[in-house]
Amino acid sequence: xxxxxxxxIGDIKVGDGHPVCIVAELGVNHLGDFxxxxxxxxxxxxxxxxxxxxxxxxxxxRYDKGGNPKGQxxxxxxxxxxxxxxxxxxxxxxxxxxxxxxxxxxxxEESVNFxxxxxxxxxxxAAFEIVNYRLIRSIAEKGKPVILSRGMASDNEIKAAIGILxxxxxxxxxxxxxxxxxxxxxxxxxxxxxxxxxxxNCPIGxxxxxxxxxxxxxxxxxGANMIEKHFTITPKRRESDNxxxxxxxxxxxxxxxxxxxxxxxxxxxxxxxxxxxxMWSFRRDTK
Length: 287
Prior knowledge:
It is built from eleven helices and ten strands. An eight-stranded parallel beta sheet has the order 5-4-3-10-9-8-7-6. A two-stranded antiparallel sheet has the order 1-2. By secondary structure, it is of the alpha/beta class. The longest helix is centred in the C-terminal third of the chain and has 18 residues, at 248-265. The chain has one domain: TIM Barrel.
């Protein structure tokens, strides 16, 4: 049987046979508050996240309004939460001073270049950017691992996106994701993880938008190699993703549950296990 490809992000190996990689999506839950952003970075790193994920963008280039009135409302919000490049750079430097590994979701070519200068260990392609081939090419050209969120995407759209990544020999991870915020647990469709593992020879993960920490361990049992959860230190705030994001204590709980499931899943080859040794003597081999 072919061994599934692994992907190395910084010092972390992602794939079968390696510990599930835990990504804390800080995003814009800081709501434009620089000190809150620093607190989030520190808290997520201290709680044990393997990777911290930012969002890097120029608000005017983040969304094509296209006559949609909701587009302007969205633009106004992300403008409020956008840091100037010098402040953004300070956050990257602060995270690195803690020893944290940082990646980002860039939303325009200038932001890709900025993130590359800041030393992003990988890039995350947001679900609604999977058909933004210009952005995918600019990311792929950097030659770093790419985490691809498959929310809303068809198989043909996934194949087109990874086709561009493969042109540039850019290693990739596909995350199962349902693009709804927050997501009801009953709509998680974790069987898609099985389908993605069957179709693509790469690590498969899960970007979970449900409340709490119940679903990620189940996704690990379904075969996920990476878990991404939105993270906050202000869960009572209703703006952005704060209200359905996990807190530092939740993150610790999630990591504990995931490590337990990894232990429970054990090995996959069908053999006699050491703990069966006693009962082995009761077998009757008749021919």
